[in-house]
Amino acid sequence: MAQSDVLLKLKGVKTYFFTDEGTVHAVDGLDFQVRRGETLGIVGESGCGKSVTSMSILRLLGKTGKVIEGEIMFDGENLLDLSEEEMRKIRGNRISMIFQQPTTCLNPVFRIGEQIIEALQIHQGLSGEEGNKRTIELLTLVGLPDPVRRMRSFPHEISGGQAQRVMIAMALACNPELLIADEPTTALDVTIQAQILDLMRELREKVNTAIILITHDLGVVAEMAENVMVMYAGRAVEYAPVHALFEAPKHPYTQGLIASTPVLGNVRDELETIPGQVPSLLNPPAGCRFASRCAHRMDQCTQEEPPLIKLEGDRLVRCWLY
Amino acid sequence: MTVYLIRRLFQAILVLLFSSAVIYSLFALAPGGPLDELRQNTDPKSRPSEADIQRQAKLLGADKPWYLWYPTWLAGDTWLDKVGLEQYVGERKGILRWDWGTSWKFQRNAPVLDIIKDKLPDTLWLMITSTIISLVLGIPLGVFSAVRQYSFFDYILTTFSFIGLSLPSFWFGLLIIAVSLWFKRNGWFYFPAGDILALRNYEVPVLGTVVAGSFLDRVMHLVMPVTVLSMLNLANWSRFMRASMLEVLSQDYVRTARAKGVKERVVIYKHAFRNALIPLITIIVFAIPGVFGGALFTETVFNYKALGFTFISALNLKDYPLAMAFLLISSILLVFATLLADVLYTIVDPRIRLD
Predict the structure, then answer these.
(1) Is the ipTM of this complex over 0.90?
(2) Does any CB of chain B come closer than 8 Å to the CB of residue A123?
(3) B306-319 pLDDT, tens per residue?
(4) Which of B251, B259, B264 has the CB atom closest to A97's CB atom?
(5) The domain B112-348 belongs to what CATH superfamily?
(6) Are B260 and A109 within 8 A, CB to CB?
(7) Domain boundaries in chain B?
(8) From the CA of A106, how many Å to the nearest CA of chain B?
(9) pLDDT per residue over B88-134, tens digit each?
(10) What separation in angstroms does the CA of A282 have from each of A15, A291, A318, B187?
(11) Is residue A61 within 8 Å of A67, Cβ to Cβ?
(12) What domains are defined for chain A?
C-alpha cells in the first residue's frame, strides 16, 4: 500500500472530556486509516466513541473535550498541529460531515440555497450568479425535485429525507476528499433510508470521496462499507473487510452484535442480547473492557488488556482468544 | 395577513372596551370618592354645606349613580334624556367622541389630554434613554457572556446582574443621590440630585456653568435616574439574552455551520444571533407600554415629576378622568405591542405565519 494512497490515518488518538464528575475517556487509543475513495464503517453501540471520533477529526469537540494524545494525519498533515484558521479551511472543504438529524441541522431562519451558497462562498469564493448555478447543480445531483424553487424554501418546508439530501449537497459542495457520515439514515423512514444510501453510493462513484460511515446499524454497513471497524467503550475491538466480518466475526462483542440483529422472516421468540452494560468511561476497568459481559472470559482478560492481534486477510482483533 | 390584521383590530377594540369597563367598575367599587375630602373637613369655618358638596358633585359629574359613570365616560351624558334620565343630562361627549374629560383634582379643570401631553416629553426622555441604553448594552453583554460561558467575565456579569435585579430602585436611587451630594460637598464633579430641569444656572467642576433649561442641564438631570432605571433592565435583558444565546449555541445547526468551515465570529453573529433574538422580541416590544407608563419609584426618588408620578397622584386624589385616560392609553399601547410582537415574529422567524 503506497503512502499517498492513505488519506486519513489516526495513531493512538485519545479524546477525553473534562467534566465536573471527572474525566471521561471517550476515545482511548484509537488507530485506523482510510484510503482514498474507501468507505470505512465504524460500528458500535451508543456511547462507544463513534461520534466523538468524527468530532475529533474535525476538531469540533467543544470546550470540555480535547484530543490529549495521538496523531490525526490527513493527507500527510497532522490536523492536531494546524491553527484554528487552517483547520477552518479544511472543514466543509476537504473534509465535510453529515449528521443524524437532518431537519435540526439546517438553520431555520435561512433559506436552503443561502446555506449551501455559504459553503461555496467560504471555500471557493463563489457568490451571486455562479453560486446559484452551482447550488442548483448540487441540488439536482442529490435528486431534490424542483431545485430552483427548493433553493428558496426554508428548512421547515421540506421533509426529513429532503433535508438530508440538502445536507449531502452542502457537504459535497466543495468536492471533499473525505465525507464523515454520522448516522446519516438513523432518523429517517426505512424507505427514505434506502434512497439516501443509494444516493450516497451513487455519489461515491461520481465524486470518488472517501467515506467514514458511522452507524449502529449493521445492515447499513453491510450495504455500504468495504471495511468495518467495531468500537467498544472508546477502543477498536475488531477491524475487518466487511464480508469477512459478517461471515466470521472474531471478537465476542462483534459476534454478540451480529447475533442480536433481527433477521427478516426468521421468527424467534426473543432476540439475542449481550448481557450487562457498557462500562463507565469515567473509570474504565483494567484489562479487556468487554470482559464483564463476555461469555469467553478468562483470568487473563480482567488483568491485562489484549493488544490488537493481526489475523489472516488484513483483520485485526483485540481479544486473548486469538 | 390583511384579514388577520383586521380580525386582530376588532379583537383589540373588544379587549379595550372590556378592560376599560373592568377598570371603571373597580374605581366605582373602591371605597371613597372625589368628594371625600370635602366631607372630611371638620373645620367649622370652612366646612362646606351639603348643598355645596352636591353642587361640586354636579360639576364633576359625580352626582350620577355608579352605573352611569362608565357609560358617561364612554359615550357622554348628552343623550341621557332619551333613556328617561333627564336629571343627569350634561355636556360631556364621552371618549368615543374624543372627549377625554377634564381633571377633577390634579390640575382642576385642565383637559386630561393637555396634562398628559405636558408630561409626556419628560417621560419619553427618561424612559427612551434608559430603554435604549439597556438594549444597546444588554444584548451584546448577554451574547458575550454566553459565548464565554463560565469565564471570568461571565461570572462578573452574573454577579452584576443579580445585584441589579435585587437592588430596589428607591434604595439604589437614594444611594447614588447620597454619593453625588458627597462629591458635591467635596467640590468634585457631581450630578444634580433631583428635578427635571434646574431653575437657576449652576456651577459644576469640569463643565463650568450649566445654563438652566439647556440641553446639558437636561442631560445632567437624566444621568442618575437613567442609571437606576437601566440597571434593572440591563440586568434582566442581558440574562435573558445569555440564556437564549446559550440555548441556540447548543443547536445542531450551529454545529453544521462550524462543520461547514464558517468563521466562529460569523457562526455567532449570523447563525446563532439571528435565532437567539427571536424570543427577545416579546421582551423588547412589551417595553413600549412601559415607556409611556414612566417609572413610579425612580420618578419619586429623583423628584422627576413625569407620567408615573402623575398617574399615582391621580389615583390618590381619586381623579378618575385622569387615571382613566392614563390606563386607557396604557391598554391601547399594550394591545398594540402584542400585535406588533406577532407581526415581528413573522418577519424574523420564517416558521411563523399569520392567517
Answers:
(1) no
(2) yes
(3) 999 999 999 888 88
(4) B259
(5) MetI-like (1.10.3720.10)
(6) no
(7) 2-97, 112-348
(8) 5
(9) 888 888 888 888 888 888 888 899 999 999 999 999 999 999 999 99
(10) 12, 17, 21, 63
(11) yes
(12) 3-94+174-238 (3.40.50.300)
